[in-house]
Design a protein that fits this description.
Blueprint: E1 16-21, H1 24-32, E2 41-44, E3 53-56, H2 58-61, H3 71-77, E4 82-84, H4 88-103, E5 109-113, E6 116-120, H5 131-146, E7 150-155, H6 158-167, E8 173-175, H7 181-185, H8 198-206, H9 212-216, H10 220-227, H11 229-237, E9 254-265, H12 268-287, E10 294-303, E11 308-313, H13 319-333, E12 337-346
Parallel strand pairs: 2-4, 7-8
Antiparallel strand pairs: 1-6, 1-7, 2-3, 5-6, 9-12, 10-11, 10-12
Helix pairs in contact: 4-5, 10-11, 12-13
Bound molecules: 2'-deoxycytidine-5'-triphosphate (DCP) and magnesium ion (2 copies).
2'-deoxycytidine-5'-triphosphate is lined by residues 20-25, 54-55, 67-68, 113, 115-116, 169, 290-291, 358-360.
Amino acid sequence: MLHVGQAFFGETLRKIIHIDMDYFYAQVEERDDPTLKNVPVGIGGMMNGRGVLCTSNYIARRYGVRAAMPTLKALKLCPNLVLVSPNMSKYKKISEEIFDIYHQFTKRIQKLSLDEAYLDVTECTKFNNDAVEIAKEIKRRIYGKTGLTASAGVSYNKLLAKIGSDLHKPDGIAILRPHQIEQNIAKFSISKIWGVGKVSEERMNKRSIYTFGDLQKYNKLDLVNMFGDFGASLHGYCRGIDEREVSSGGERKSLSVDRTLSEDVTDEQHLCNLLSESYDEMLRRLKEIEGRLIKTIHVKIRYNDFTSTTIETQSELEFEYFKKLFLKRYAQKKLPVRLIGVGVKFFPTTTQGQMEMPLS
Ligand code: DCP
Ligand code: MG
Ligand code: MG
């Protein structure tokens, strides 16, 4: 068997580990209260009959209970669900302990959320630079320090490492090697592709695209025509190609998807369709940054006279709000549009704590 980054495939392959804690908040609560073991658990509050879940344990998931689900709905699906209020400061402290462990192996750490990170261990000298052994040791140290299990994916890029960490949850590890990768991933559902959310999955399904293999049949131009810039990435992703670096920048403050249109557009329906595509892409990217609370949403328009306008509000993440904002602002000038942008700003993780608007 070949090892990730073995010379046979060239020395240039990177060694990437993606680690994600198993049912993180719920596992912590189970650890601290043994009566929660073997019962369905949902983490989330309820205020005035409203509230959503941050996550649930795997027993609750068997009933269909999921993160971001309204608590009332979860209770309908699973009347025995035991609700536990989130304790963010506890999860943050544990998260810091976990990230301290990562720092024992590499400086190149990209934090995606409290429970999830990419590690580039290409240069790590521990365990003879064997990425699989490094991942196993990290899992052991996390368990030793916190009593919690994590799952890891080991591969030569972020896309495959992330797919891997999800394959054998909980307490799993999966290694995706370069050998015959196109064939090996062909059976995977497109929903495993980084950035493919519900909306784009439906769009693909309409074209009978369900798996990586289905996507592999399309050339790059087709995919760009279908999905814009994201189509070019998709062309690589479905073949296991992903050049994105593990980047350890500071905490993300906002997320925007700006799209310059290939021609000036005035037709309102057409503009709304384009807005909806940018919105879908924003949701795809938000999916990767779970656990952050949204402070504001915004819509940006640039007209063909190069003036720009941005409107920002505290509101919900529904498309209808974005559309309303957009149409309201567009009506002021009604010039042909050059660029459409949508985005959100986040509360810093240090001040978030209330379940106001978790990302789904
Ligand atoms: N979280 C949240 N709101 C969401 C999703 C997640 O507050 N919509 C929080 C609670 C989760 C934690 O972030 O425990 C990590 O999210 P994950 O998506 O990694 O989910 P879990 O760790 O809970 O489960 P899994 O074992 O599937 O990773
Ligand atoms: Mg997790
Ligand atoms: Mg996670």
